Amino acid sequence: MAEPLKNRYGLEVAEVLAQQITAVWPDFDSRAFMKQVSVGYEGLDLMARGQQIADVLQQYLPADYGEAIAILMQSVGAPLQDARSFSMSAFYYLPHTCFVASYGLQHFDESMAAQYQLTRRFTAEFSIRTFLQQRPAETLACLRRWCADPDYHVRRLVSEGTRPRLPWARRLPEFQRDPTPVLALLEELKDDSELYVRRSVANNLNDIGKDHPELLVDVCRRWMVDASAERRWVVRHALRSAVKRCDVAALAVLGFDSEQTVRVEQTGVQPGVVPMGGDVELQATLTLPKSAREPLRLMVDFRVHYVKASGRTSAKVFKLKQLTLVPGQIVTLSKKLSLTDKSTRRHYPGVHGIELLVNGKAWPLGEFELHLT
Pick from 169, 137, 168, 143: which is nearest to 155 by CA? Predict the structure, then answer.
């Protein structure tokens, strides 16, 4: 099992921060600061550790936020150069962003200037969300300007910070309900020169699609018109969750037509009864009739309806194959499915149904009964 990230974010982070602050503001009481930060620190997770350091900073920096943030920003190091993703060392700046989010809301200009500098060293994607929720109009106006910033870390903040479902962060329910302001920003960034930014655009659009699947398809369909190879990549990445759930409209955007007829025959699941830890073999034959107008691209997946501990079933989709059939072509596909328990899935006895998914359309393959022995 991987070591928890919090174990790599010990009290030495606060010690270095105290040293850096003392170097620019000698009145900082680093000993008292460290004593208070250490209280209960070991029991906190990563993000809570950053917040605790920020909360204690607020007690030992000047009471005036303008003075405090000026000292804090004077203590920071140089911006990142070529790194497209931050490492654990960059999490050194997590308390800085927590400080801005917790205490800077009433000091908009100073806080946005601080986040501009912090995102060039770490990321302000977590702290900017407080401002998007509490001061949306001003923050969105600032982000629109940052769409054209020469620093790609700043441009990425625009798309990453507005993700409605950003991991490790609070959701943005207003943007989940109406993502229109976010889409306006993504339009500005969809052809960004940096893959780092374009990937963030795709991730944001993927988030939007979880609440608005039809809107996701509409945007991607429009973006595919006269699209460059780079933008086509953005669309594919944005549609990945929709493709995984076999959304027919999303698959059509990527050229997997569900309207043409493909025959699915000679289907089977063998054996029909299998012990825990065994395997089953899935098989199906696909035929594109000779009367078809043109070759047909196929995205072929299969869906297993796993029995859960409660006796109910839960569906899981697995990728199988992408291929192109020409009129009259016949292809036989097979796949072995393991029923051995894993850390991510436990198996329970009962009847499991399996379907083949061809460009999003479901075809029954059969079923098997799983026994304990």
Answer: 143
Sheet holding 296-307, edge to edge: 273-275, 361-371, 350-358, 296-307, 313-325
Place of tokens 């930014």: 197
- Of all helices (H) and strands (E), which one includes residue 3? none
The total number of structural domains that make up the chain = 2
40, 111: one domain:
yes
User: Are residues 241 and 280 both part of a single domain?
Assistant: no
List per-residue pLDDT tens for the chain, 373 residues long. Answer: 566 778 889 999 999 999 999 999 999 999 999 999 999 999 999 999 999 999 999 999 999 999 999 999 999 988 876 655 555 678 999 999 999 999 999 999 999 999 999 999 999 999 999 999 999 999 999 999 999 999 999 999 999 999 999 998 999 999 999 999 999 999 999 999 999 999 999 999 999 999 999 999 999 999 999 999 999 999 999 999 999 888 999 999 999 987 778 999 999 999 999 999 999 999 999 999 998 889 999 999 999 999 999 999 999 999 999 999 999 999 999 999 999 999 889 999 999 999 999 999 999 999 999 998 7
Q: 341 and 217 share a domain?
A: no
* Residue 258 belongs to some domain of the structure: no
End position of a domain, from candidates 199, 219, 253: 253
Tell me which residue range forms the domain holding 336: 263-371
Domain assignment present for residue 108? The answer is yes
91: left (phi over 0), alpha (psi -120 to 50) or beta: alpha
334 within domain boundaries = yes
Prediction pTM value: 0.87
